[in-house]
Amino acid sequence: MVTRYGRQHPPQFGRSCTFVETVELPLLEELAQRFLRRMGYYGLVEIEFKLDPRDGQYKLLDVNARTWGYHQLGAAPGVDFPHILFADQLGENVEPARARPGMSWIRLLTDLPGGIVNVMRGQLKFFPFVKSVLHSDTEAVFSLDDPLPGIAETALIPYLIHKRGF
Fold it and tell me: pTM value?
């Protein structure tokens, strides 16, 4: 699964992503696979690259051999990471999976305030922002099937406003 960060929190220097979408970028797949093969790595991993505008090359930024905040996005486009890991640990045959591009994940609690600030600053266009919020495929915490985590996270809003400004 190859993704692109759309937005982060805080907006200028993010500690975490707030909107992510799957993309088709074979070059990054090749770079990541080559890196992992050379290391002999086996297992779950998130590899981050950043496009260097000076030379147009992707540079290795970070390697996380653990789950990451938006790993649950994978299920919507066809890469169910928890199921794949479970089956692998049981010794079952795991078929290769590829994420469909154009699927998105959002964490509303931090994306909404950051997005609104960016719209007001002119750094983000209003209608594309609203469309991305309304049409996201996966939400980080809120779910109609299990609303309690979303309610609990909403209770954090006063704390986040006090500690981080939003």
Answer: 0.86
